Amino acid sequence: METWSEVAEVQPLASKIITNSMKKDRISHAYLLQGERGTGKEAIALLIAKGIFCETNAVNEPCQTCNACKRITSGNHPDVHWIEPDGQSIKIDQIRNLQKEFTYSGLESNKKVYIIKGADTLTVNAANRILKFLEEPSKRTTAIMLTDNSQAILPTIRSRCQVIDLRPLHPTMLQKQLIEEGMHERNAVLMSTLTNRIDDAFTRINDEWFASARKIVVQLIEVLSTNPEDIFLFIHQHWVTHFKDRNEQEEGLDLLLIAMKDILYYHIENEAGIVFFAPSDELLELAARRFSQNQLVAVLQAILQAKRKLKQNVHPTLVMEQLTLQIQR
């Protein structure tokens, strides 16, 4: 995202709040941008900085072509400072160095911007030091603090910032972000159905347990489609032993629900809706011959009922046995 118009597509409220304050020349002395990875925190911080320094004084959008905009993009503007965690945290020495910068005038103007990435990783001492700036704001200085974990921000810091909440990514936007960060397109489609967090998506896709879970769901559908008489043996030997605690059991049912929806979408020729399988997967055709559309609707309802039973603390093995019986009907 390089313009406020692009930000508005993903974060309309945040874009409106910040651009309105810029138009009225009421930029806050400190912002706290809080949202999960991929929600646009760094892009918004850069746009705020460009709005402050842009040489064309563009009201709606920074020009992106002036010397100031180009140097902010490249990270080489002398009056825009980035602070990032040194290892696992932002340490007090980093903030001491930042405080020294506070005492100097800007090199090219009377303005300065400080962007603190990973603000939730400030050590207690570092956080207390940064409060000095926040308690004595200067009209010439703007701090922009970025965090994935808003709960870890000290209340004293939060109360001195204009807090901008960034909403989770829309599935389509999440898919795009995941693909841009190197995830295979089909995996990105599935992950955007299961989560709205980039970190969680990559954690799952690289997890051996999750890979095995996907494989077991495929095998379950294959057994149901070709050897239904073996399904109870499969459930006890593979499903129950893999999906052990409540979260795993619910995730297994979520994957099964998505996979069975795919079969229904295959029936009605809605290729765009297919998520779990590749649209050309032969198992889709095989399962579609085994289950009619009406049967699939009933199966989806049975899976949802199974999820409710898990939440009601019904024994998970019993839940799966009952679900299997309902699917076989």
Automatic annotation (TrEMBL):
Keywords: Nucleotidyltransferase, Transferase. It is an enzyme of class 2 (transferase). InterPro entries: DNA_pol_HolB, DNA_Rep/Repair_Clamp_Loader, P-loop_NTPase. Its EC number is 2.7.7.7. The keyword Nucleotidyltransferase applies. One of its GO terms (molecular function) is DNA-directed DNA polymerase activity. GO terms for biological process: DNA-templated DNA replication. It comes from the Bacteria. The keyword Nucleotidyltransferase applies. This is DNA polymerase III subunit delta. The gene is holB.
